[in-house]
């Protein structure tokens, strides 16, 4: 989705008249993006998570930004077992 917004913004920055054709480079980028669009319509992201027991669930959120865009994501993590860090024996000389 962000790709389409950035392409539209780049087109707006060209300050073209309404009836002027889109520059070839932007047109090519748009057509490439549109070929990928049908695959995105198959993407399903469930918003409800149910566990069979009263297990612990963690939410980990991350965000980032650039001059062109910003994004955020939240991952759901369900720890299954406690892992202990094992010491590494020093065999390298």
Summarize the structure.
Helices cover 32% and strands 17% of the residues.
Topology:
Elements: H1 2-13, H2 24-41, E1 58-65, E2 70-77
How many β strands by DSSP? 2
Biggest sheet descriptor: 2 strands, antiparallel
Indicate the proportion of strand residues. 15-25%
Order of helices and strands: HHEE
SS class: alpha+beta
> Averaged pLDDT, please?
83
In DSSP terms, counting alpha (H) and pi (I) runs of 4 or more, how many helices? 2
Question: Strand order, biggest sheet?
Answer: 1-2
Cα-atom radius of gyration: 23 Å
Walkthrough of the structure:
Pfam families: Peptidase_A17. InterPro entries: Retrotrans_Pao. With 93 residues, this protein is an alpha+beta fold. The chain has one domain (1-77). It is 32% helix and 17% strand. The protein has two helices and two strands. The chain has helices spanning 2-13, 24-41, and strands at 58-65, 70-77. Strand 1 (58-65) and strand 2 (70-77) form a beta hairpin. The longest helix has 18 residues, at 24-41. The protein is elongated and about 65 Å long. The mean pLDDT is 83.
List keywords for this structure.
93 residues, two-stranded antiparallel ribbon, 2 helices, Retrotrans_Pao
């Amino acid at each position: 989705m962000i790709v389409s917004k950035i392409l539209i913004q780049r087109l707006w920055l060209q300050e073209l008249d309404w009836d002027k054709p889109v520059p070839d480079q932007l047109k090519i980028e748009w057509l490439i993006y549109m070929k990928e669009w049908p695959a995105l319509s198959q993407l399903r992201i469930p918003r409800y998570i149910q566990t069979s027991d009263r297990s612990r669930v963690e939410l980990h959120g991350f965000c980032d930004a650039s001059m062109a865009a910003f994004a955020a994501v939240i991952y759901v993590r369900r720890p299954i077992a406690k892992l202990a860090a094992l010491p590494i024996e020093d065999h390298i000389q």
